[in-house]
TrEMBL record:
One of its GO terms (cellular component) is cytoplasm. Transmembrane segments: none annotated. One of its GO terms (biological process) is methylglyoxal catabolic process to D-lactate via S-lactoyl-glutathione. Residues 4-126 form the VOC domain. It holds the Pfam family Glyoxalase. The keyword Plastid does not apply. The gene is gloA. This is Aldoketomutase. One of its GO terms (molecular function) is lactoylglutathione lyase activity.
Length: 126
């Protein structure tokens, strides 16, 4: 039996702000948008160019309060070839960006950026 990861879903409070973040800052493209007004929600699927794995943003029309991210969510990770240049670019974006970090054994170099809902995205040197 063949299996494949297809998407990760996160709930967002402001769909347009979130779509703008993932498109304008992280470079994702909108793959498709499904509106279900009768059920009061919209789904937007985004992916990095050339990557089949998608991020699903679920927008519930009547969500008034920010979502409680809880302590179970960790992060989404995106690999890049030019970590320092991307860090500089994202630092100018107006979103919260951490300093560049590295594991003590040299296994990884990375930083985090937060989206409009507070979800952490780890940017890792490939």
């Amino acid at each position: 039996m063949s299996k494949k990861m297809i998407h990760t879903c996160i709930r967002v409070k402001n769909l347009e702000k979130s779509v703008a973040f993932y498109k304008d800052v992280l470079g994702m493209e909108e793959v498709r948008r499904l509106d279900y007004p009768e059920y009061k929600f919209t789904l937007v699927y985004l992916a990095l160019p050339g990557d089949g794995y998608e991020l699903e943003l679920t927008y519930n029309y009547d969500q008034a309060e920010p979502y409680d991210l809880g302590n179970g969510y960790g992060h989404i990770a995106i690999g890049v070839n030019d970590l320092e240049d991307i860090h500089e670019e994202y630092s100018q974006s107006g979103y919260m960006v951490t300093d560049l970090k590295g594991l003590s054994d040299g296994a990884a170099s990375y930083f985090f950026i937060k989206d409009p809902d507070g979800y952490k995205i780890e940017i890792v040197q490939l």
